[in-house]
Amino acid sequence: MKTILLPVSATDPAAQTIVAAVAQISAGQLVAMPTETVYGLAADAHNPEAVARIFAAKGRPTTDPLIVHIADQTQLATVAIDIPALFFLLAAAFWPGPLTILLPRHPDLSTTITAGFDTVAVRMPAHPVALALIRACGTPLVAPSANLFSHPSPTTAQHVMHDLTGRIAMVLDAGACRIGVESTIVDITRTPAVILRQGDVSAEQLSTVLGDVIVQQRTLATNQAAPAPGMLLKHYAPRTPLTLLRGPVAAIQHAVVRMQQTENIIWLCYADDAVCAARAGIATIMLGARDDGVQVARQLFAALRQADAAGAARIVVAEPTGAGVAAAVRDRLFRAAEGVFTQVE
Ligand code: TXA
Ligand code: MG
Q1: Average confidence (pLDDT) over 304-309
Q2: Sign of the alpha-carbon dihedral angle for 23, 28, 32, 33
């Protein structure tokens, strides 16, 4: 299959481009679409063959459920039932936006989408192209991140092409995603609500609406039997081994310089590391200012892909500081390091 790459305005998508994408979705094909978080691989949620194609194209295990994307709340009618009152408060506060909400599954919704679970994950993305496409299709769209299974999520159309060219019908290229890490996932079918994945909508923000919220503990071993979906630490791992350093900035810099003496490393560094790196002749990829979680989140997955392609023996990185989306970045780094920190003093 030849994958069609179509440029599209991120703010004002041309009708003819959306029509071309709708034709593919209606024919049961897969279209990668931009969202404000990462690129998603979209298919008609009510077409079982199209849903099956998603798992095949990504090489994704059928035990990992998909998020259903909607453009307005009337589209919930065929997706979820018994919607709790809290849902409407959350939707009013955070939709459209980077928040995925677990709801009781509609009995007619394919259990392939939910991997056999009684809950369905639903999100209304805040991206004009995604919203225009869902609206024009007139059906909810399932959309996992548009990467090969276990690769970092794609934040540009080029990342999608790298992973999926020849395997999907079309990619809508609206440039780099604004947020850069996947949506926050919250389960409100339990009390108190549980955050299953951290994202741009923080635990603090959610608790203003929900009161008590629990952040689900990350799975520490990759070989545990049937961890909760999406909790696999290995999930975000680049192919190159990654060392995650923790400690004071000076101690981290000192440790990286020492590592460079014995190994061919690439350093995902912060602005205040640049002088140290240049002096020691260490190859770097710049993530931004250490305390600028927003900027670091935008760079993270592109940086991991670039680091993987650099051919170094090891990737070295430290955590960004601060609250908000920086917490989601720390979560993704922890997973990329398969749950291992190296503490330096
Ligand atoms: O930002 C995002 O959420 C992006 C964009 C494209 O919307 N999508 C995304 O989808 O990250 P995906 O499939 O890569 O990740 C969805 C996560 C998976 O880890 C899956 O296990 C979890 O959501 N999930 C989906 N349905 C679930 C359910 N019923 N219960 C628990 N977890 C669920
Ligand atoms: Mg994914």
Answers
A1: 95
A2: positive
Is residue 226 pLDDT above 60, yes or no?
no
Q: In the predicted model, what is the mean pLDDT of residues 194-217? A: 96
Residue type at position 269: C
Rounded to an integer, what distance in angstroms lies between the CA atom of residue 187 and that of residue 174? 30
Structural domain that includes position 254: 242-343
CATH of the domain at 254: 3.40.50.11030
Nearest to 219 by CA among 229, 201, 231, 209: 231
Which pTM was predicted? 0.96
User: Predicted confidence band at 68 (pLDDT cuts at 50, 70, 90)?
Assistant: very high
For 150, phi then psi, to 5°, come to 75, -5
CATH number (domain holding residue 158): 3.90.870.10
CA–centroid distance, 43 to ligand 1, in Å, is: 14
- 16, 108: one domain: yes
Among residues 215, 234, 265, which one ends one of the domains?
Answer: 215
Is 127 in the same domain as 264? no
Q: What pLDDT does 52 receive? A: 98
| Contact assessment for residue 64 and residue 229, using Cβ atoms and an 8 Å cutoff | yes
| Statement: residue 224 has pLDDT above 50 | no
Looking at per-residue confidence, does 220 or 27 come out higher? 27
Which pLDDT does position 235 carry in this prediction?
A: 61
Q: How far apart are CA 328 and CA 325, in angstroms?
A: 5
How many Cβ atoms from other residues are within 10 Å of residue 254's Cβ? 15
The residues whose Cβ lies within 5 A of ligand 2, an ion, are: 145
pLDDT tens sequence across 254-271: 999 999 999 999 999 999
Task: Examine residue 156 and state whether it is found in any structural domain, yes or no.
Answer: yes
Question: In this structure, are 249 and 171 located in the same domain?
Answer: no
Please report whether residue 108 resides in a domain.
yes
Atom of ligand 1 at shortest range from CA of 33: 6
Number of domains forming the structure of the chain: 2
- For residue 104 and ligand 1, the question of a CB distance below 6 A is answered with no
Tell me, yes or no, whether 327 lies in a domain: yes
